[in-house]
# Entry
Amino acid sequence: MRAAVLDEGGLDVRDVPEPVPTFGEAIVNVAACGVCRTDLHYLHGVPTAKARPLVLGHEVSGVVATTTSDRLPPGTRVVLPPVIPCGRCRFCLEGRNTLCASMAMFGNHRDGGFAAQIAVPAWAAFPLPRGLPLVESSVISDAVSTAYHALANRGQVRAGETVAIIGCGGVGLAAVQVAVALGASVLAVDVAEAKLRAAERFGAKGVLDAAESSDLGKAIRQATGGVDVAVEAIGKPSTIAAAVEGVRPGGRVVVIGYSEASATINASRVMFREIEIRGSLGCGLQDFPKVLDLAARGRIDVGALVTHRFPLEKTPDALALLESSAPDLIRAVVVPGGPP
Ligand SMILES: [Zn+2]
Ligand SMILES: [Zn+2]
# Structure
């Protein structure tokens, strides 16, 4: 089969053996695999758990080809979570499987979704509700589920609260939709006009062009009086600090952006204002049915999140588009069967 393989020389689209299922696994024909910034990190040298060669990609929807599970007959449309938790470690048993000590992530610990087929433990594949589009629903796997965990669990966003979403990329704009679905009033922050317009279409009450302000945290406070929850979806020390500055006393800051750098925050503000700073990583498997239900009820518009579709042979171009920070890009997906 064809696959986009991360090798010593970079990303190479070539023929590889088809995946062989181990006991309890299903083989899924990949309908689409979303392109995520994490893929870029691996491409640029962040080490992967499985040695190269490795099939990249972790945001998969598809159709079951073969399985030994009664739950998933061949032909079942499914969404795969990006990470398979072990189910046995302390964190899994506490219901915090995003922290699993023995997690296996597609396109990192095991071969991923930029391929014609992928193997998955059958218990970890989620049937896609009828009415949801197969290709576009791939973004539920990572972008939408990550936003859900960040807002519903880590941010504990309640109806009527104000939420600032700082950074309107794929996850950020999914977060705008999820926050609106949870009943929050959203202020979207970005430097790209097209991203801010998209946030408005997704229900954001206000937008803030970060390029126009020298003090982003102050600008957020001036626009809202201080938000209940600020979500940092970029992974930049300066915007993490701005999130801390932008919340009201007692507010919550949720960090979903990835950065290796240290952020400098005002410790006295954290203390005097009892600000809570919480990290957020992916989404627990127990929440996938809730996320799929939000999408099935039309509260999340997955079709509007997918702006670009690439054939498998052009996977490197899809990654290059993300790297270029194209203003009209929300999520690009690789469609191994060819663009519909
Ligand atoms: Zn990802
Ligand atoms: Zn575990």
Summary: Residues 85-86, 88-89, 91-92, 97, 100-102 surround zinc ion (ligand 2) (CB under 6 Å).
